[in-house]
Specification:
Number of domains: 1
Helix content: under 10%
Structural class: mainly beta
CATH topology: Hypothetical Protein Tm1070, Chain: A
Number of helices: 3
Radius of gyration: 18 Å
Number of strands: 18
Largest sheet: 9 strands, antiparallel
């Protein structure tokens, strides 16, 4: 579900933010990577606190929704003519006919509690302290808006990437919006919306579009296209995710990769970076593929977001659960 190769898709090729990741809004793949490092494409540290979760996607008496990518702050380099800043807005909706009680927690990439990134809410009676709030009553049909990186008051001094978990006493809808703006004038460069993820994904797919340009194509103003993803282990124990790429005929491309996720860990990457052994030639045209994820633990404790980037444009790609 918004630089270096392992900095927002180290929190890829976007400075995705939120994602699923989201992450997740960059003008260069390196930027998305940086945002994803701090952090959509990022490999988080291999240690962290427990962020165990219960509940489903929101069909029972309680629900858990995960924002797999949250980007906040200025990821631009010093002296950039158009310094860029990322913000994430999360809209939590109570679609029911009675009030629900909501708690929210925000974490760093290693799963520890986020304390450095400030969050603001549209509700005057809600204060988010040290990356969490609890027992907020949301009236039927009402909206709770939580944002970071959208104003001087909720923008961190050092840009960073988080992920977030919302737990509610009833069904809720959560959608995040990543915004890329000029850090001084606040002029909007790009915006993309990413739905929140279930916290218990087991086997799921994200579509992939890929096109690698030649040097002449790049000089002509065309851009590479690739798909990125963010993964979060929402559980209290480590898990292993097998990542496979399939072509239009259903054949596996390259060798499946294993991503080990510690408890609470967030990672993000672009497929072309994860599969550095791919033989993807420039100028061979567009490919339509899909990425298949298989979670090794039972019960499954993974949330995800998908994004595609082409030049300065980002698109949200659905995470389709098949188990």
């Amino acid at each position: 579900m918004l630089y270096t190769h392992k900095r927002i898709l180290k929190t890829g090729a976007l400075a995705v933010a939120m994602t699923i990741v989201f992450a997740i809004f960059a003008f260069r793949a390196a930027e998305w990577t940086k945002g994803l490092d701090s952090e959509f494409i990022v490999y988080g540290q291999n240690s962290g606190g427990s962020t165990g979760t219960s509940g489903t996607g929101g069909t029972g008496s309680s629900s858990v929704k995960v924002v797999a990518q949250i980007a906040s702050g200025n990821y631009g380099n010093p002296g950039d003519p158009e310094p860029r800043s990322y913000g994430t807005v999360m809209e939590v909706v109570n679609p029911g006919t009675s009030s629900v009680t909501i708690s929210g927690n925000f974490f760093k990439e290693d799963g520890t509690v986020s304390t450095a990134i400030p969050y603001a809410a549209n509700a005057t009676n809600l204060t988010i302290t040290n990356g969490s709030f609890s027992n907020y009553s949301l009236a039927p049909g009402a909206i709770l808006v939580i944002s970071t990186g959208t104003s001087s008051q909720n923008t961190p001094a050092v840009a960073g990437t988080n992920w977030g978990k919302f737990t509610a006493s009833g069904p809720i809808s959560v959608t995040s919006f990543f915004e890329l703006r000029h850090s001084q004038t606040r002029r909007l460069f790009a915006r993309v919306g990413v739905p929140a993820s279930r916290a218990d994904l087991g086997t799921f797919l994200i579509a992939r579009v890929r096109e690698k340009q030649t040097a002449d194509g790049l000089r002509a103003g065309l851009a590479d296209i690739d798909t990125g993803f963010a993964l979060v282990n929402t559980g209290s124990v480590p898990t292993l995710v097998t990542v496979s790429v399939k072509d239009a005929n259903g054949q596996t491309v390259g060798t499946p990769k294993l991503i080990a996720l510690a408890a609470g860990q967030h990672v993000a990457n672009f497929v072309s970076l994860l599969y550095s052994d791919f033989n993807e030639a420039a100028g061979e045209g567009r490919k339509y593929q899909y990425i298949k994820f298989d979670v090794g633990s039972s019960p499954a404790t993974v949330a995800a977001a998908g994004l595609a980037i082409e030049g300065g444009s980002l698109s949200s790609f659905p995470v389709d659960a098949i188990q």
